[in-house]
Amino acid sequence: MQPDAYPSRVLTEPAWLQRADPVAHAPWRSDAPLTREQHEGFERHGYLVLEGLFAPDEVQALQIELYRLQNLPVELDLDTVIAEPESGAVRSIFAIHEQSPLFARLTCDARLVATAQHLLGDDVYVHQSRLNYKTGFDGKEFYWHSDFETWHVEDGMPRMRALSMSIQLADNHAVNGPLMLMPGSQNTYVACVGETPDDHYRQSLRRQEYGVPDRASLTLLAERGGITAPTGPAGSVIIFDCNTMHGSNGNITPYPRANAFIVFNAMANQLVRPYGGKPPRPDFIARRAASALRPQTGSLSQRAGVSVDLASPIS
């Protein structure tokens, strides 16, 4: 097992560690799927927004499947469904690429995979996939956190060589609990306090209490880089580094927010024994053995055999 470059939940006080890994793991080149400006922006800020990456017919096909899965069809593995702590509404469904042919096709889409391969400098696989539902009036917040802190401590992800892509499946407004990010925070690892309880995932996926940064650290990170909340139409994609501090407010508006969330990890960065000393989380949360993705081109809806009626958009 590799030495622990990013220890967390082992000290009595929070600590800051400087990042020991690149943000972009390969240099920009002229045939890259991103422009030089996009590449450098990701390195500098820790995130990137690709507005309108998916066409309206593709978005509607994904929305149809999104709401079908929300109704918990019989073939869905109920262990992968996470409910809101108070209302019981569906909060997240994990392993969507293993339970839906359409979302399986999405995770292989060349527009996503090629970008992940470029930024991570390697072939990639799906570490985690899920649907996030933030229903009108009832959708609860996701508190500030670095995904890598959890993936490192609880899953055994060795290095910062992974990224997340949030594919927006509803219009992102400033008022309906959009994703918030702290630009520049990807360069600072906040080591958290508190020993991880057994089977922590059962509670943390509903409301996280361990692996949560302290308020002083969050304040300093926000003062350094500010806080941004990208908005935009459904079909846009927000890409952010595994260590970028992020979270979102609850949604008390009538306007639902939903996204497909895919984590791409470099093949050279596959999971080892969790650094926190606990048994690994289930495979539907953190895939421990997977093959490299083969990028697929073409229309998402056509390749998935989905027919949509653009005259009747889903809101």
Description:
By secondary structure, the protein is an alpha+beta fold. It has a single domain (15-303), classed as Sandwich (Jelly Rolls). Helices cover 23% and strands 20% of the residues. The protein is built from 8 helices and 12 strands. A 7-stranded antiparallel β-sheet has the order 2-10-7-12-5-4-3. Strand 3 (81-83) and strand 4 (90-94) form a beta hairpin. The chain is globular. Mean pLDDT is 89; it is low at 306-315.
List keywords for this structure.
alpha+beta, 12 strands, seven-stranded antiparallel beta sheet
Short structural summary:
With 315 residues, the protein is α+β, with helices and mostly antiparallel strands. It contains 8 helices and 12 strands.
What kind of sheet is the major sheet?
7 strands, antiparallel
Helix content, binned percent = 10-25%
Structural Rg: 18 Å
Counting H and I runs of at least 4 residues, what is the number of helices? 8
Beta content comes to: 15-25%
Number of domains: 1
CATH hierarchy, class:
Mainly Beta
N-end to C-end Cα span:
48 Å
Shape: globular
How many DSSP E strands?
A: 12
